[in-house]
Structures are given as structure tokens and as C-alpha cells.
Amino acid sequence: MGGCEGGGGTYGFLLIKIEGGNLLKFTSLLFALLFCAIAGPAWAQLDPWEFEVYPVQTEGRGMLEVESLNSIVADGHTEGGEGTSAGTVPSDGMYRTAVELTYGLTDKIEAAAYLNLAHPNAGTLQYAGSKFRLRGSLFEQGELPVDIGWYVELESHNSPRYDDQDLELELRPLFQKDIGRFSIRLNPQFEKVLVGPDSNKSWEFGYVAGFYYRTARWLSPGLEFYGALGPITNIDTQSEQQHYIFPVLCGELNGGIEYSVGPGFGLTRGSDHFLVKFNIELERFVGALFAPPSPATASRAASLRAIE
Amino acid sequence: MKFTILSTMESCDVAFRMAAVALLLGTAVALSLGASARADEDSTPVIRFQDGRFDPPDLVVKAGTQFRLRVVNANKDPIEFESFELNRERVVQPGQEIVVYFPALDPGTYPYFDDFHHDSGQGTITAR
Questions:
Q1: ipTM for the complex?
Q2: Residues of A in contact with B91 (CB under 8 A)
Q3: Radius of gyration of the CA atoms of chain B, in A
Q4: Which A-chain residues 162-201 have CB contacts (< 8 A) with chain B?
Q5: Rounded to whole angstroms, how far apart are CA atoms A109 and A287?
Q6: Beta carbons of A37 and B32 less than 8 Å apart
Q7: By CB distance 3.0 to 4.6 Å, which of A13, A198, A256, A282 could disulfide with A298?
Q8: What pTM, to 2 d.p., does this model score?
Q9: Rounded to an integer, what distance in angstroms lies between the CA atom of residue A227 and that of residue A230?
Q10: pLDDT tens figures, A179-210
């Protein structure tokens, strides 16, 4: 899912009957709740280990994806805590790499674990943190005018070298719209420090967004945007905010290898000035841990629906 | 005393927000686990994958009209119904079926294939 292809995931048999109209109301309620939940007294730190825009579709049930996420800050800040650095190690010359394992739990939910490693300028490869996340899609792709999904992540850090916060929670609603060969993805980010010096601060807001034009399966251009605005209750000044734009090339090569590569340009003083990202992933079907309903069960469910 | 009341209020506020987040996530997971409307399935065109090939190999649909498609995997192995042109990629478990939603298509022929068995499973959807 790190490439620019929007597919993935499977469809399961209907176990809960919710009519389309009610589902819409339910979703509205869901997002109303989200904003109630986040509107409390936190600052959006960009996740420099993962320059990736998520589609709404998840890995299919039983699919395993191994992904290597990489970025190099070619022109960054020389002081810790500035630019993409959230710890004492400065961002300039930093090579970050993360190994991500993603598994399709069900037709519409996937789980992932990350190992974040850092290679400071002329230094050795060091452990920087770990992440665990769940991601889901709420509808079939194309079922609604805009595809909707969700994302929840727990992130722990090797404090204080790479992030002075110990544990963070991140929530994202996921949106996607396909128009012909164009694909638009939007991932607003809401992050809260659970354990660490900023645990008493409000939620932070950031964003991840991407626009792609699908020219060929093996090569498509796109533009990605990443940003961190700061605490919701006290947005940072424009110069303190981080905003990046990445022109990218992405696609799927033979053997199921997907890639996404491109240079990133910082747009504010608070951003690193120039960095490069390159992500590569491989996915394989390894078998479903949780089997879908057997045809007999599905047939029974269909009969029950018909009776209703 | 004032500090205690404020602390209690803050604790309630945090508890409320945590409960809201939990409710939100629980609802999202529940929706992801089961929800999708599947009315009028009988009128939905079907593509069946069996013995390493899709049947019918060329499905004709009406151009300019949104449509749904049922993909049935009658094989003993999983397949991945994929089309770059149609921007769809869905795994179908053995003995299971999926419903795929498509936007209104311009007239033309759109190839699809089974990404797990490139050498055998291929087909087209033609919009007229």
C-alpha cells in the first residue's frame, strides 16, 4: 500500500445488516464523535520515519506486506529539536529507515508493526522507536462518492535522542476520491502524547495528502504533502510549522514489488530544507489467520437476509 | 479544595475523551467488520473464476452507468482480482465471492487479471 495503487483488501460476507442510509448517518456520527474526542486541550510532530500517504483500502485478508521506508535529510537543521528532529540529535544528514510488517486481518482491517532506525550523520544505525497500528476501511471502494477509512497508531520512542515523548497516540480519518485516472488521498492527523513531558498538552494537528495520476502500472507521477501545524488549541506560527511537498514517482514492478520515490522540499523555516524519500514494499498471500465465513454460513446469512 | 474539584473535573474530562475515542474506534472496527449493502445481488453481473480462468472472459456492461460486479472464486486457492485500468485490486478467498463497485465507464475495453496467477487468469470488461 505504499505505492500509488489504491486497491487492496477483500470483501467479506455481510454479518451486520445496516442499510445504506443508516450507514451514512452512522458514519456522520462517527466523525462527529471524532471531533468531539479530539477537541480537547497536544503539538503535531511530523513522523519523519514514514513519508507515506495511505489509501482507504487495506491489505486483503491473509496478505502480508514487508515494507522498507527510507528518508535522507540532505539539507536540514543543525540543532536538535528543529525540522524533522524531535529529539536531541539534529536532522541534518540524518538517514532514517523503518521496517514495516502489515498483515490483512480481515477483509477491511489490517494490523502493522514498525521498527524505526536512525543513522545520524557519520554515526551508527540506532534504534529510534516502534509503532503499532490498525487501519480499516468502512465501505467498499467506490461504494460512496468519497471512500472513508480509519487509522489508529501507538508510537513509542527512544527518548530523548530521537523524540522526547515516550508514548504517543495518533488517529487519522482516511479519505479517498478517484476521478478517472486521478486519485486524491487525504489523511488528517490528530496526535496526543500519552506518556512524556507533553502529556498534559492538547492534541496536535497535522496532515498527509497525495494526488496521483495513474499513467502506467509500473510508473505513475504524484504530488505528496506532509505537514505539522502544532497544538489544536494553539497552532504554531507559520514559521514554526512544518510543510513539505514531494513530487513522487510510484508504481508496481514485476514480482509484486511496489515503490515510491521522490525529493521533498521544506516550505517553511521550521521545515528541513531538502530531503529524499524512497519506499519499497513486497506483498504476498501467506494465509488467513481468521477464516472468512464458510460458504454454508454465508448461505445461511443470505437466507436470513432474504427472509428479513 | 478548589484544586481537588478542578482535578476531578479534569479527570472526568480526560475520561470522557478517552471514552469517546474508544467508542469511535469500536464503531469504526464494527463497521469495518461487517457493513456493506448487498441488495439486489441477483441482478448484479457475475464473473466466476474456475479452473484457472474467468467466465465470462469478456463481460459487456453499459457505458456511462455505475455498476456492481460479483466476482466468485470457485477455485481452491485464493485469487486477486486486479485491474490497473479500473483501479481495483481485491483478494477473493477460495469458495468466496466479493462485490466490486465501478464508476460510470467511458466506452472501451478494460482488462483485468488474477494477480496471483498471471499466466492463466485474465479477462476484460467492455463498456458499450
A1: 0.77
A2: 8-10, 60-63, 104, 285
A3: 23
A4: 169, 171, 178, 183
A5: 15
A6: no
A7: A13
A8: 0.81
A9: 9
A10: 999 999 999 999 999 999 999 989 999 999 99
